[in-house]
Design brief:
Blueprint lengths: L9 E6 L3 H12 L4 E4 L8 H4 L35 H15 L5 E2 L4 E7 L4 E6 L4 E9 L21 E4 L20 E5 L3 H13 L2 E6 L6 E2 L7 H9 L1 H10 L18 H13 L4 H4 L9 H18 L3 H6 L14 E2 L2 H4 L5 E5 L5 E4 L3 E4 L2 E4 L2 E4 L8 H4 L2 E3 L6 H4 L18 E3 L12 H21 L5 E3 L1 H16 L11 E5 L5 E5 L6 H13 L5 E3 L1
Parallel strand pairs: 1-2, 1-6, 2-3, 4-17, 6-18, 7-16, 8-9, 8-16, 9-12, 10-11
Antiparallel strand pairs: 4-5, 5-6, 13-14, 14-15, 19-22, 20-21
Helix pairs in contact: 1-14, 14-16
Bound molecules: ligand NA7.
Ligand NA7 binds next to helix 4.
């Protein structure tokens, strides 16, 4: 840092009013910092604001998803289901916003278009789509790991005359409420069979005249087991909140599951079957997150569970040919996000539901009437793109971010992210990426991990303020060490063999490809331990001035 510092318009600008951004804004304001939040949506909610497709719901137990800044509000909320649906999640986010009184800090319906670090003044210059230009000392992104929608670039996509939308941009009415799209009597196409497609497909199957599922790659899906939460159950949960919250913080992903201490390879076949059956029948992610400890490390152990799930798919889908198409062959169980389903496999037993294999016969183009694959044409009234997101770094790539000496973040991360603690990249001083690449929050129950990360960043910023420090930058050595460790940890797991949304593949000009993890897989407790070591040692690994 050199030159003359100027007093910026704000101490901090937070991008995003989702669960993480709201929490961060609240915490900084509570510390007396001048903070401004910027949000593209009309109101708070982030992921729960944007994803309004039918069937959208939480995949962690509702009562484990919370705002730790205001833990007082958690016990006040009466969850209606074990896994709350999107409308309830959005109501909860709004309730939290009211309680934290954060809306007053936000500019809504506003996008950050650019953020340029000014070396001389040690400020970030932030350009908004309204044309306004603002300055701040700390820039904090809370843009969510899954917010930049990914649309396929099929030829003719604009020509389709029916209704067409990406799941995270569900149509709304004039007042911003999600429109109920009535599928009755319609020919509906769903492209994509990830977590989102798997939620929407059984619902569309109820009413659509014909539902065509365009599947490129099947996933290992397991039962959600959602149930209403009765008042007496909720009362008991409320009494146990301190224990529940401490427990989820102790687990690798902040879901309420620890891994079984046994290796799958040490357990007899009969015992394994009983164990898998029990996990399959219990609600939630236990089957993925509390299975044998070598599930994501040993191909042999993984195959035991994959074979068990394949057997379940064959039992639940009546047409054997369809069942085989729904069984993944390209990736181990749990190496990609396991979609949680409710009657997903049974939907394929309905006469109106048709599985279209677009791996074998790819989509060639769209016409005004529908979709043309290598096998033929499908006339449709509605096309739903459940095609996922440009994950983790996608939302940052869409902002023109430059750091020291005008270096673009996108260029700095062209071969994959490089950060210290997943929180700051060298060359981009005072820019914190909450739930960003390589930190312990993206592969986690974000409601919990994003909140904990906001607390840590708040502590670092107030530490700096209290000592008259205005500049922080990840050191070269700390960044290199962290980044290498993140890549090495990931490479040791079976996840390295799969193309999940948390892996970014970049094609270089010479045609070669680079595959990089976007997430840290060392687990939340290990991550937070490392962060606490850094904080305790006066933020060693950051150059402060
Ligand atoms: P995902 O999990 O990334 O799934 C996207 C799906 O869309 C997946 O089946 C993809 O097939 C498919 N896809 C993507 N692009 C195309 C194109 N061009 N043509 C055909 N099919 C395509 O996103 P979701 O929204 O389902 O879930 C994301 C997260 O949101 C989830 O983990 C939850 O935490 C919430 P592919 O596997 O790439 O062959």
């Amino acid at each position: 840092m050199s030159g003359v510092e100027t007093k910026p318009d704000y101490d901090a600008i937070v991008i995003g009013a989702g669960v993480t951004g709201m929490n961060q804004t609240y915490l900084l304001d509570r510390e007396g910092l001048r903070v401004l939040g910027i949000e593209a949506g009309e109101d708070v909610g982030g992921t729960w604001y944007w994803n309004r497709y039918p069937g959208c719901r939480l995949d962690t137990e509702s009562y484990t998803y919370g705002y730790f800044a205001l833990s007082g509000i958690i016990p006040e909320w009466d969850w209606s289901e074990t896994f709350a649906g999107q409308p309830e999640m959005l109501r909860y986010a709004n309730y939290a916003a009211d309680k934290m009184d954060v809306r007053r800090h936000y500019k809504f319906r506003t996008k950050v278009e650019s953020a340029h670090y000014d070396d001389l003044a040690n400020v970030w210059k932030v350009g908004l789509d309204s044309g306004e230009k603002l300055t701040c000392r700390f820039l904090i992104s809370a843009t969510g790991p899954l917010s930049a929608s990914r649309m396929p670039d099929y030829a003719g996509i604009e020509e389709f005359k029916g209704e067409a939308f990406h799941t995270s941009r569900w149509p709304t009415d004039d007042e911003g409420n999600p429109q109920t799209i009535d599928f009755t009597g319609k020919r509906v196409g769903v492209i994509g069979t990830g977590a989102t497609g798997v939620q929407i497909i059984p619902i569309a199957a109820h009413t659509a005249q014909d539902l065509y599922v365009f599947q490129r790659t099947p996933n290992w899906c397991t039962p959600l087991g959602n149930m209403p939460l009765e008042k007496d159950e909720m009362d008991l949960i409320r009494k146990r909140y301190p224990t529940i919250l401490e427990y989820v913080k102790s687990t690798p992903t902040a879901f309420p599951y620890h891994r079984d201490t046994r290796k799958g390879t040490e357990v007899s076949e009969a015992e394994r079957e009983v164990f898998f059956e029990q996990l399959y029948n219990q609600p939630g992610y236990g089957i993925w997150l509390s299975g044998f400890r070598d599930l994501l490390l040993s191909k042999e152990s993984n195959k035991f569970l994959a074979d068990f799930i394949a057997k379940k798919i064959r039992q639940r889908v009546t047409d054997p040919a369809v069942a085989e198409k729904l069984i993944p062959t390209d990736h181990p169980f749990g190496a990609k996000r396991v979609p949680m389903e409710t009657n997903y496999y049974e939907a394929y037993n309905q006469a109106n539901v048709h599985l279209v294999d677009i791996k074998g016969a790819p989509i060639q183009h769209l016409t005004p009437k529908g979709i043309v694959t290598a096998d033929g044409a499908y006339d449709l009234d509605v096309i739903i793109f459940a095609t996922g997101f440009d994950a983790v770094t996608g939302s940052l790539d869409r902002i023109d971010i430059t750091g020291k000496n005008g270096q673009r973040l996108k260029d700095a991360w062209a071969d994959g992210p490089s950060t210290f603690l997943g929180l700051q990249a060298r060359g981009f001083p005072n820019f914190f990426t909450l739930v960003g690449p390589h930190n312990g929050s993206a592969f986690c129950n974000v409601g919990v991990c994003g909140g904990l990360q906001g607390e840590w960043v708040t502590r670092m910023i107030t530490y700096m303020r209290d000592r008259g420090l205005t500049f922080s930058e990840a050191s070269e050595a700390a960044e290199a060490q962290w980044t290498e460790a993140v890549y090495a940890d990931f490479a040791r797991t079976l996840m390295a063999d799969a193309n999940a949304w948390w892996v970014k593949t970049t094609t270089k000009p010479d045609g070669s490809t680079v595959k990089r993890t976007l997430v840290y897989v060392g687990g939340g407790p290990e991550y937070r331990k490392r962060c606490e070591e850094v904080a305790y040692s006066d933020y060693a690994g950051f150059e402060l001035a």
